[in-house]
Structures are given as structure tokens and as C-alpha cells.
Amino acid sequence: MPDRPETLTIGTFAKAAGVNVETIRFYQRRGLLPQPRRPYGTITRYGSADVARVRFVKAAQRLGFSLDEVAELLRLEDGTHCAEARVLAERKLEDVRDKLADLRRIETVLADTVARCGRRRNAVRCPLIATLQTSTLQ
Description:
Layout (H helix, E strand, L loop, with lengths): L9 H8 L3 H10 L17 H15 L4 H9 L6 H38 L7 H8 L4
Helix pairs in contact: 1-3, 3-4
């Protein structure tokens, strides 16, 4: 029965996990998902544990973890490595906060530039272009 969770074809597996078939293959090449045993002469089958693992990977990615970081989380997934997982989460939180600070800085510069564009009617030089040409933003 192809619809039973322990006998999913790759297409059914991908659909159940909410990804495409190439994502499954990519995760296998990256070692995020084990290669299933393929009985001689038959179609490769996947199970509900495989679906759960792909969903784990996608959930971690939505939180901003890279695939390398996801691989590390998968190594810790047995639940006995909370301290190590916390360190990874703390690092990711710091990274997110740094990105938010960068976005706030970008927002400030853009808001100022847009405001200057609105005030400069018939100006010879566009404030946006001038800002980009002289910018030291990094």
C-alpha cells in the first residue's frame, strides 16, 4: 500500500513532507537524510520517521539555521544534548539580533534618503544616487 506511512515512494514522501523530490535527494547528498535501503529490484520506500526528519530540517531553516547548523542539530536530536543545542540557539539569536540592527540602520538611511528626495524638487543631483555614490555603509 503506497499510502501507508512506512511505505512511501519518494514522490509521496516529498508531498507528505511539503518539499519536492529534488529537495529529498539534495538532503540525502548532504547527509541530512539517510539513503534508504533499496531491496534489489524494487522501488525505494520511505517511512514516517523520514517525513518527520525533513519537517525538522525545514522548521530549523525557517528559524534561520543553515544546513550545516541543521546537521549539527540533527546530531543532537536525541534530546540528551540540551546544553549543546542551547549554545547553537544562542549563537543563532545573536546572529538574528545583528541582522536586525543592520536592517534598522538600512531603514534609517533609506527613510532619510527618501525624505530628501521628496524635498529636492528640480535638484540637479538626486539624493538617492548621491547617497549611494558617497556611501560608506557596510
